Hints:
- The chain is an alpha+beta fold.
- It folds into four domains: 105 residues, no CATH class; 90 residues, PAS domain (Beta-Lactamase, 2-Layer Sandwich); 86 residues; 144 residues, Histidine kinase-like ATPase, C-terminal domain (Heat Shock Protein 90).
- It has twelve helices and twelve strands.
- The strands form three sheets. The protein has a five-stranded antiparallel beta sheet with strand order 2-1-5-4-3, sandwiched between helices.
- The chain is rod-shaped.
- The model has no long low-confidence stretch (mean pLDDT 83).
Amino acid sequence: MIRTLLLAASMFISLYLFFYTSLTITMIMAALVVLIQIAALIYYVDRTNRVLNDFLQSIRYSDFTRTFQVETTDSTFDKLKATFNDVIKDFQAVRAEKEESYYYLQTVIQHIGIALIAYQKDGTVELINNATKKMFQIRTLNNIQALREYNPELVQKLLTIRHGENLLLKIREKDDLLQLSIYGTEFKIQNRTILLVSIKNIQQELDEKEMESWQKLIRVLTHEIMNSITPISSLSSTVNLLIDDVTDTLKTKDGCNEEVDNLHEIGEALKTIHNRTDGLIHFVNTYRNLTRIPTPTFSIFPVARLLNNIRNLHLKELEENGITCLINVEPASLELSADEKLIEQVLINLIKNSMHALENIKNPVIELRAFLNKRGRITIQTIDNGPGILPEVLDKIFIPFFTTKPQGSGIGLSLSRQILRLHGGNINVWSEPEKGAAFSLSF
């Protein structure tokens, strides 16, 4: 209002000088004052637009660090700037909340133990978590095609998986076996179709369920077999004693030789039945060991000591068979938390198998290795240069009762797998015909 009144007064004075005086210089000066006041008024009125433009530019470029200087609280213009400052503070709070939510989500994604990959239809990867990097031993992944060197079938399944589909993929490595469960979800963001895939290794769960099923079956079978065999063994033993008594009585009488011979034959048959039932009882009791493994007593011990004990235990037998036994521990100070006695039993079984496989092999060698595998797990291996294991047998050797040895019981490797399960680890085998076999214990 003051500016308007001053402008009106200046214009009045200019017009008065123009029409009623001949003061040219004064009139020109008054006209310049009017022009300056008009320009100042325009600049004064336009400052609201300038402040509003600065405010909108800050919002456009998400620059919420800017503030507007408030000089007084009486001016409507200063009130406008104060309101802008409040809006910017609200935007700052919303932005901080979004950033917190983003980092929270990122922390959850990176912490979760299941591998997650988000990628487009053409394979361009937008997100992976630490579990993915650890599973596939990669640092970055720009495109799904980069996993083709790891496993071509995995890439094919990832590129063809549909929304809500659940796939299973088995990947065998030299020192590990992966049974991958792959689940895909499809969604759209800004006209981009994104596939979010979760990948989990369920090999341990499958092994545990398989071993649990075998244990239940063995319990039922051994219970029923023992219920049937024990009375037979007892009765055959009792009848055999009665026949011996009758035979001794008949021998004292004349003319009973034929009856004695018949009773003798019956006694021999009963002895055969008794011996066979005893063998079956021993057989059943042997398989009961699969369900009677003691709870591991964990302790920390050097792996090198464990492997040296195993070699020393079989040193004489190794020398007699001309087998060279090598030990390699990397690093030499590697330590393991486990039940040393139970792990010794597993390694003894594996050494026995290797020694059996090396019969009639020139320059036989057994290597005991311990190292950290590419997933950071402590791994102990027994490697031999024997004939190897046939591919069609490879997936069956851990099944209870299955054996390729003429005199084998089929319990050693099954027992070993059960011991590793109790340690939270697993046992796998890698082999090629005529190239030897390698058993890996991963903890």
